[in-house]
Amino acid sequence: MTFKIITLGCKVNTYESEFMLENLLRSGYIYNEEKPDIIIINTCSVTNMADKKSRKMVRRARRENKNAILVVAGCSAQNDSDEYENMGIDILIGNRGKSKIVELINNYKKTHEPYSFFTKNRDLDFENMEVEKFTTHTRAFIKVQDGCNNFCSYCIIPYVRGNIRSKKFANVIKEAEVLVANGHKEIVLTGIHTGSYSDENKDLSDVISSIAKIPGLERIRISSIEITELNDKFLDLLKVEPKIANHLHIPLQSGSDTILKRMNRKYDTAYFKNKIEQIRKIRPDISITTDCIVGHPYETEECFQEYVNFCKEIAFSKLHVFPYSKRNGTASAVMPQIDEEEKRKRVHVLLELSEVLEHDYEEKFIGKELEVITEEYTDNYTTGFTSNYLKVYLKGELKLNQVYKCVIDKLENNKVYGHILTCLNEKIGL
Prior knowledge:
Elements: E1 2-7, H1 11-26, E2 30-31, E3 38-43, H2 48-64, E4 69-74, H3 75-79, H4 81-85, E5 91-93, H5 101-111, E6 115-117, E7 140-143, E8 145-146, H6 157-161, E9 165-166, H7 169-181, E10 186-190, E11 198-199, E12 202-203, H8 204-211, E13 219-222, H9 232-240, E14 247-249, H10 257-262, H11 269-282, E15 287-294, H12 301-314, E16 318-323, H13 340-363, E17 369-378, E18 381-386, E19 391-395, E20 403-412, E21 415-423, E22 428-429
Parallel strand pairs: 1-2, 1-3, 3-4, 4-5, 5-6, 7-10, 10-13, 14-15, 15-16, 19-21
Antiparallel strand pairs: 8-9, 11-12, 17-18, 17-20, 18-19, 20-21, 21-22
């Protein structure tokens, strides 16, 4: 039987989808985008728009593939199970059960009885999944952690993902070794709250230190980490471990202390700024990207201007901007809401600022040598990413998943172009 997987949302979902894909292939199922007998949709619920997109995707899949086995999983299904149960879905699971995807499909083929499973229990153990090789990326992801205990006032994720829990340390190291042995040169450590990783007195820094010793691994990247988790141990490691990517994604969410307090974030702008200064003393050229929520309740024009000014002061290399989305059941949902049109205006302001900040950061590297791991070839250019997460366009068709030393030549139409000096893997002068 054939199948396809549609993945919405974050890197955790990407990892979980890759796990399901690998296990189905290993069990004899065939991946086919055009005529699938089985459709798996891994949903997202981080915003109202994500929920809407998830439901739309499910309806379309059922409408266009009436005879296919339809499997729906993930955060949106977990958040609104009642609605999904009325949508003609064959197998419906929340954020538990993805590790049993083959068993669930095989059982359905025998019985043709719809299956639905959800748990509202937050006290969960880690549902172990291990991936041997990524088919969709040259970078490999390892999900080291799940869940969140922070309960930021705007966020639904702690309710749909459960409590903080971590993959066994030994399992993380083993998975990393297998991924590198299978050719991956970069590993991205991911989770819902990655920096909270903890197992048998081991934390995220211990994970990084251990996998950095794996021969053949060139780069370790963290998908996202909270400013409060950048402790002295991590900063000391940042000084001495060159395999840690020269890029950190650190969610800000607001640049106004008033709003940060309303959001139930665990820091203020002074704390955030101090940590960034510590990081830049260690790595002056590091790329620091961030998430920005715009239009949270009580965000006055004055608060928003403080926000804009703070983003300029920090000089992020890129802003990921999202309008505040009211999530029923969260503390922010009962606060006075900001007009939608005003939200859109403020989003536009921050997006424009992001373009300026991104250009200013990229411009610093014109004429400099950087290492690129190649990922994709399209339209006569091979693209890949540097350690500081610049997407670089290199002329011609190059071998993928190789480390090339290159020089950044120019910025043009919001793209970074460079030329190759040498292939570090093959030691070929170009």
